[in-house]
Amino acid sequence: MITVEMRGITKRFPGVVANDAVDLVLRAGEVHGLLGENGAGKTTLMNILFGLYQPDEGQILVKGQPVTIHSPADAIGLGIGMVHQHFKLVQPFTVTENIVLGLDGWGFFDMAEAERQVGEVAAQYGLDIDPGVRVQELSVGAQQRVEILSSLYRGADVLILDEPTAVLTPQETEALTGVLRGMAEKGKTIVFISHKLEEVLKVTDLVTVLRAGRVVYSALTRDTDKNTLAREMIGHDLANLRADQQARVLALAGDEDAAHAGEAGARSGGSECLIDARDLRVIDDRGLPAVRGLSLQVHAGEILGIAGVDGNGQRELVEAITRVRPLEAGEITIAGLDATGWRARDFIKHHAAYISDDRHRDGLILDFDLGRNATLKVFDEAPFSRAGVLDFRAIVRFTRQLIGSFDVRAPGPSLPAGKLSGGNQQKLILARELSRSPRVIVANKPTRGLDIGAAAFVHQKLLEERERGTGILLISSDLDEILLLSDRILVIFNGQSMGVLNSGDADTQTLGLMMAGTPLADLTAQEAAS
Amino acid sequence: MNWDLVTYSFVVGVLASAVRWATPILFAALGEVFTERAGILNLGLEGIMLMGALSGFVGAYNTGSLWVGVLVAAATGMVMGLLMAFVSVTAKANQVVAGLGITILGTGLSTLLFRLFFGLRTKPPTIKTFGTEPIPLLSEIPVLGRMFFNHNIMVYLAFILVGVGWFVLYRTRYGLALRAVGERPEAVDTRGLNVTRLRYSALLIGGALAGIGGAYLPLANLGLFWTQMTAGRGFIAVAVVVFSRWDPVRALLGALVFGGAAALQTALQTLEAPIPSELLLMMPYIVTIIVLVIVSRRAEFPGAFAVPYSRGEG
Amino acid sequence: MTTAERSQSPAQPLVNWRALWQNLVQAALSVVLSLVVGGILLLLSGRNPLDAYESLLYGAFGTTDRFTETLVKATPLLLIAVSVSISFRCQYWNIGAEGQMILGAIFSVWVALNVTGLPTLPHLALCFVAGALGGALWSLIAGFLKAYLQANEVITTSMLNYIAVYLLAYLVRGPMIDPGGFNFPQSRLIPEALELPRLVERTRLNTAFIVALVAAALALVFWRSTWGRRTEIVGASRRVAAHVGLNIPRTMLLVAGLSGALTGIAGWGEIFGLHFRLIEEIARGYGTLGIVVALLGGLNPVAMAISAFLFASLVVGGNAMERNANVPFALVDVIQGCVILLVLSRAYLFKRAS
Prior knowledge:
The structure holds three protein chains of three kinds.
Chain A (H helix, E strand, L loop, with lengths): L1 E12 L2 E12 L3 E5 L6 H8 L7 E6 L2 E3 L4 H6 L2 E4 L11 H6 L10 H14 L15 H14 L4 E5 L7 H16 L3 E6 L2 H7 L2 E6 L2 E7 L5 H9 L8 H10 L3 H5 L12 E11 L5 E11 L3 E5 L6 H8 L7 E6 L2 E2 L5 H6 L2 E4 L3 H5 L6 H5 L10 E2 L2 E2 L1 H14 L16 H13 L5 E5 L7 H16 L3 E6 L2 H7 L2 E6 L2 E7 L5 H8 L4 H10 L1
Parallel strand pairs in A: 3-8, 3-9, 6-7, 7-8, 13-20, 13-21, 16-19, 19-20
Antiparallel strand pairs in A: 1-2, 1-4, 4-5, 9-10, 11-12, 11-14, 14-15, 17-18, 21-22
Helix pairs in contact in A: 9-17, 16-17
Chain B lengths: L7 H30 L7 H19 L2 H25 L4 H24 L25 H5 L4 H19 L1 H11 L1 H6 L4 H28 L10 H11 L4 H23 L6 H5 L1 H14 L18
Helix pairs in contact in B: 1-6, 1-9, 1-10, 1-11, 2-3, 2-4, 2-9, 2-10, 3-4, 3-9, 6-7, 6-11, 10-11, 10-13, 11-13
Chain C lengths: L2 H5 L9 H28 L4 H13 L2 H26 L7 H18 L5 H30 L3 H21 L34 H16 L2 H11 L1 H6 L4 H28 L10 H11 L4 H25 L4 H24 L1
Helix pairs in contact in C: 2-14, 3-4, 3-13, 4-8, 4-9, 4-11, 4-12, 4-13, 5-6, 5-7, 5-11, 5-12, 6-7, 6-11, 8-11, 8-13, 9-11, 12-13, 12-14
């Protein structure tokens, strides 16, 4: 039975056509995969279905009736629910409070009764959730289940999940797959948005591929394969690339084999230790321990990848190493100098670069023009200022140079950074950081939200830096990226190291178990025992 | 210093006057608890209180009914709250500056209207205030009885509103939605509720209560109006909301702290303490700063505090 | 700040004429609308708005005397506006101008009356420095509490305003009272040699006006300096500022101290150019007016100078209006409030209108 039909959906934003005459048919009992790289238009399309955007052209039919969906309230009323990539949960509230939010009017609220009802629905769908717990105390996987339950509780027949596995360990992904299949069997319609083709192959019944806003391919999952999907996702450009570039691009698209086959692991450190962190202890903004006694080493000409599910202390670890956050205990040595007492200023002055995961909040000031952004860290040095007075001409010259050498698409240095695309913003940041010939680079989710082309560019630059002998600390929640680039991999869980592997020895299974909390030592012991 | 006057009766009297000093602040702080829980910082309280004082006074003066004055004050406060809502929620302007604008507007407008209505007279216009109405039985309790149960009806109204506020905030779905909107407006939007309407409602509540708080001064305390009579109480109310960590019951305690400082200051003047009166008058403001500093280190503001919400970001 | 204000950064190498023109038009419209609102209020109370405004205009510009009086009033407004523009651009909401002005006045008068044996010029210079110091120190109390103890500066600076008013009241009735003054709450007169020279004969326009203009010019230089850039970055995003290694508490202290010093100088100017003694009314209302001037001028020194002139004319005209047309001066406050709200909403309103 057809539950939803989207016909000829077109959506334009200034400067880009996000969806171009897209047709989509969703049926009950099916898990429908929507595949495409970042920026292909998948999330936009589903946001339209969920009422967050209005289409410029096209029609939506739900259960055969044409409808206009003005807002999430309308979508919910039609039985459509959405689980977003970044959960929309109120952290200090309990599970029940989150689920019940917005339902049943404005009056008196009986908590006990609500908890009971929530528990019932959870059991009905086999979702393991405790209705009385505060969301902030739940694991990421559990929080995702709360989001799913929230939609089901509202009677959703159609459930849209946007990149649900981005925040899960491989084992949790399997569990989620089971839950989704279970719901499909009960007659629900599931839409699974992803940019990872391997996952789409495992989870879905049907797959539709979007590229640059258009539907380029649609098939039953059992009738298609990895290579076809990859080709459709990326476009025929793939054939023009060198073999190693092809592998990189495929890996970014979620091809595990390509990730494993990456150049990484071809060298091991052995040379000068550029970052030596011993027994670090760091607390987070709420005063709780986030990093509990973690040690790591990054050598010259090496990429150390830190794998782990978001929220296990990565942010605090990175902030501690870049000296933005104080250490409660432990020592750090950077390029042979004792950095424990350093402040962020010193980190920068000693030629250590930081590429942050959140361009908009750490890396750039969107209201500032490119020139100011390019000189954010260096404006108080010659030639950008003399005797405390800024030299605008020097700044402009420098910025033009950066824009040129890294091919940042912008008309000039006076454009506000907010007007650049995500990929160009990241290029600007890279250009800025690499222009100082750093000895050490800390790269925190450097390709988050970027399309494959931009992501490949970033990877290429990082590999070039590695060639130059720079030591790179890479943090990412994307296992494919970690496998692709790293020489060695450290898995972080709950603020502690679960072990370090050479990437050649690492496989998704093992890494997945480590990410979920099993130390490498235990895993090898188990293997030896069996 | 005249120690002779320090009798049991005097001390209890000071405590009772602390409660009366606290009341206007409590009204305004209660309203601001709702506003800030919804994620909006309303620094316009001072202006809204003044407009409430003026309109309440004018309402009571012209109709002879104090309760009409209270209602008019509440309505005026709501209008001011609406204005603040437009500027900060719809126009998404900087909330600090918007609040200052409301304060400036309210201060000027209240003075202007007072002069326009009453002109300059030798004898200022007065009204008869709410009288003291002791609550039977409860007011007999030693110390606490006189402190809490021997006041005018607006004080009792404030106490009742603390309870009502607590109930609405924590035991109703509206309160749940309001708290959610201040923590994570996206969560509310995605569940089909209207963030804008919720925030507007919070400002209507905040405005109404601030208006009533301002009206307390002429209607229950002094019987007259003079320009800028709130003397910073609006800002102190904002500080009280921080002290109280956005909780109605703790706001009562916070308001009492201020009230205590103010009452102590007048008591010391009566006792002819060897401190110049101007320096004594500074006391409530100094106390506010000190308590604010102590509390600020661990203050956990609502997650989406003072940030305008736009769908489709993040 | 709205995006409109932020993108109109004064430190761009080239003047963005288009944006400047747009801002001027919007500002002018905001003022006119506010005047209309004021006019409506007058109508409702049975007064004639045209009479009132005519009186206001004549009162501000009618004679040379009046015109220079407008410049006299513009002086502290411009200084305070520059001060506000620095602190607001750092998102440090310093609304303590009134208190800082008072402390500047107190310190400078104290030095004038109690430091002896100095030749005139150094003595005057010392008074100037004392004024700046007074304002800076008062502001730094709040600045320190914010930078290191996270205390909300809006509350602390406004509390400090009230404290300063009472402190002044105490001083002019007690320790600093004029013994020959019939118990009036005022201090002794400062030595005549220290009075600031007049710029135009038989008017009150004095060199403090030049000081204000110089301050505005220096502000332009400030935004081209590394300190200015630091201030902007901290104001735009504390997180980014932390990541680029800026010392945020120290920047806040710099901003608090600098803005306080400027307002302290405004206090010095009022005493040494106009009143020549400490009196209670010295700072009344200037704090909020200064903020409105700054906002209307989009935190840009040149636009703020124009805006200061405009509001000074409102004040001078407003006083005349009260005397001659029997319209309370408070109308000016109402106009101020309307202007702020309109300025804040202008980005939104003009978008809807176009």
